[in-house]
Amino acid sequence: MLIEDFVYGHNFKIYYITDGYNAIPLVSLKKTLFDDDWNFNFDGVEIEVQDNFITNSIQKTITDDIVLPILNYLQRGDNSYSGILAVSCVLNEDLSYNITDIDTFFSNMDAQATLNLIDENLVEVFESCANGSFSDEYDDILINDNFSVAKLVKFNRKFNKSEINDLIESKIIKCGENVVLTSTAKTISRAKEKLSDDIKFINCEE
């Protein structure tokens, strides 16, 4: 029997890079549902990177209480893991949290928004994880001071034909098809404004 319950609170996710021994946080992101902001009859999911609500203290607690114990357990079983680790949580009013999911990869939507903020050569970072030098070479991962927003948009009806925004490579979007669009700016509000403008240029047909 499977029993599911809805957990109320602030939904967020923290991405880490790990070599199996050390884990360095990359970004935190907030995820929310949305629908039809501009009467375009669409819905989907929105993420914000970085999530200012998630403090360094909360991030450290999750690292110490969840991430490092998982890595230590895997090491003891001779199953050391290196790569991306993503911890999804719900933050409660009393600042306690519930873990809702743990992944070992970037989702497509999260990756597009997150990679805009990383100022490291990720090929070199992952090579250092693979050859065992990660803990010696990296104390943190360089992140720029921008904010990034992404929307996974599902269009639900036919639009009037118009010129397609180059963000979707001149592609006509079919009804019911999902599209990920991203925007980056110095503030979260400006990133959202830019993304809103981009969405208005999308053409959808049956």
3D architecture notes:
The protein is α+β, with helices and mostly antiparallel strands. Helices cover 27% and strands 33% of the residues. It has 5 helices and 9 strands. It has helices at residues 56-76, 108-115, 122-131, 134-137, 188-199; strands at 10-18, 23-35, 42-49, 83-91, 97-103, 147-155, 173-174, 178-185, 204-205. The strands form 2 sheets. Strands 5-4-1-2-3-6-8 form a 7-stranded antiparallel sheet. The protein has a two-stranded parallel ribbon with strand order 7-9. Strand 1 (10-18) and strand 2 (23-35) form a beta hairpin. The longest helix is centred in the first third of the chain and has 21 residues, at 56-76. The protein is globular, with a radius of gyration of 19 Å. Residues 36-43 and 158-172 have low confidence and may be disordered.
Helix-strand layout with pairing:
Elements: E1 10-18, E2 23-35, E3 42-49, H1 56-76, E4 83-91, E5 97-103, H2 108-115, H3 122-131, H4 134-137, E6 147-155, E7 173-174, E8 178-185, H5 188-199, E9 204-205
Parallel strand pairs: 7-9
Antiparallel strand pairs: 1-2, 1-4, 2-3, 3-6, 4-5, 6-8
